[in-house]
Design goal:
Layout (H helix, E strand, L loop, with lengths): L1 H27 L5 H4 L6 H13 L10 H9 L15 E7 L12 E7 L4 E6 L9 H8 L4 E6 L7 H4 L9 E4 H14 L5 H17 L6 H11 L3 H9 L1 H22 L2 E4 L10 E6 L7 E9 L3 E9 L5 H12 L4 E2 L3 E5 L9 H7 L6 H18 L1
Parallel strand pairs: 3-4, 4-5
Antiparallel strand pairs: 1-2, 2-3, 6-7, 7-8, 8-9, 9-11, 10-11
Helix pairs in contact: 1-9, 1-10, 4-7, 7-8
Length: 387
């Protein structure tokens, strides 16, 4: 009983600290973020590549020359191997088209960010939540054989073998993350713009967005207080931490069972064998009117640790290619992303990993915003399929 009392006391004191800093955030306006307001948080092309590319461009509208580009090189040691890089005259190209993708997926595509001087090429493949494309890194490396290639994603995950093939990490390409390299780089850029208030505050807003997406504590003082507190309760703190995964699992199954209940009420069959496997979590649904059709509705996480939640349509192997093309075009016109295997749209708050607000919302089941967004998505998919 004494250990339970200590755990309860610890949790209570932590909640008091969190409440204090939440109130401070309201006063300072820290929670306001223009990218969140505009629902542009996870847009790789028009938010992340656009901002990063503009800052890297020595002739960008920031009028700071090559300052930010040099800081980017400093943050990524692999780039320092490039000798005599011409920072002042470097060019930054977004969405560089290197030709149509051929049938073998051996060449072609669009490269997210390319940095060039007269002798050197740096290729950056930018991933927020989108999956890897077939032979994607292979195609880019084939086009720019001597380039320095960076695979940028939120947490420093490795690309899929389908994308990288026989390319070797740290030899043919290098992995960098928003959580580490981009965050550190932006903080250095922010320090360089003390006397440019508009640029400074824009970088600060973008930095807050990155910290939100990568689940980093934005308030160091709050972290310090919590660390001091839990140091007084080491045993109880570890006991609480050891149960977080179980806590998440229970809420996850509670939430997905609410989706399952909705599906069964609507005469939609549920493929329970997809409820959980080693890498992805979620449900596969088939409306009765789709019983003889080669596709299913899916609500799944793209990556482990409850990251990248999306809803959409998955194809079965017997889907005729000509019909699949028409099917994909129909959903593409309605704002869904699509490829040869999936049609999908990310849930607005799709990274559950360590976001307490999302878990708190999911715990309310049918009353949660995520539940209602997914139900609306299912209904929209059924309507589009009928067109």
């Amino acid at each position: 009983m004494e250990e339970l009392y200590k755990s309860q006391n610890l949790l209570h004191n932590v909640s008091v600290i969190v409440k204090k800093y939440e109130d401070m955030a309201k006063i300072t306006g820290e929670n306001f973020n223009i990218f969140s307001v505009m629902s542009m948080e996870s847009n790789e092309r028009y938010t992340h590549s656009a901002i990063i590319g503009e800052l890297l461009n020595p002739k960008g509208s920031h009028s700071q020359g090559s300052v930010f580009l040099k800081l980017f090189f400093e943050e990524n040691s692999i780039l320092n191997e490039i000798e005599n890089f011409d920072f002042e005259n470097a060019k930054v190209i977004l969405e560089e088209h290197i030709g149509l993708i051929d049938e073998e997926y051996s060449k072609g595509g669009f490269i997210d960010i390319v940095i060039k001087d007269n002798s050197n090429v740096i290729v950056i493949e930018n991933k927020i939540y989108a999956g890897d494309q077939k032979n994607q890194l292979l195609r880019y490396k084939k086009h720019y054989q001597n380039c320095k290639m960076l695979y940028l994603n939120l947490f420093g995950d490795e690309p899929s073998k389908e994308s990288s093939g026989n390319l070797i990490i740290d030899t043919d390409f290098h992995i960098i993350s928003y959580k580490t390299e981009i965050t550190n780089w932006l903080e250095k850029c922010h320090k360089e713009t003390v006397e440019q208030p508009i640029i400074r505050e824009t970088i600060k807003q973008y930095l807050y967005l990155i910290k939100k997406l990568t689940n980093q504590t934005t308030n160091d003082k709050m972290s310090e207080e919590i660390v001091k507190l839990i140091s007084k309760y080491p045993k109880e703190s570890f006991e609480i931490a050891n149960n977080i995964s179980k806590f998440k699992r229970e809420i996850y199954f509670f939430f997905m069972n609410k989706i399952r209940d909705y599906a069964l009420k609507k005469e939609i069959s549920v493929n329970d064998c997809w409820l959980e496997n080693d890498k992805e979590y979620g449900l596969f649904l088939k409306p009765n009117q789709w019983s003889n059709k080669p596709y299913n509705i899916c609500i799944i996480f793209e990556k482990s640790n409850y990251r990248g939640l999306y809803f959409g349509v998955s194809y079965e192997e017997n889907f005729v290619e000509e019909e699949k093309t028409k099917f994909r075009e129909k959903f593409s016109r309605n704002g869904f992303k699509e490829n040869d295997w999936w049609i999908w749209r990310y849930v607005k708050d799709n990274d559950w990993q360590d976001n307490p607000k999302i878990w708190e919302d999911a715990e309310t089941g049918e009353n949660s915003s995520i539940y209602n967004e997914i139900i609306h998505g299912i209904e929209e998919i059924v309507k589009i399929e009928k067109q």
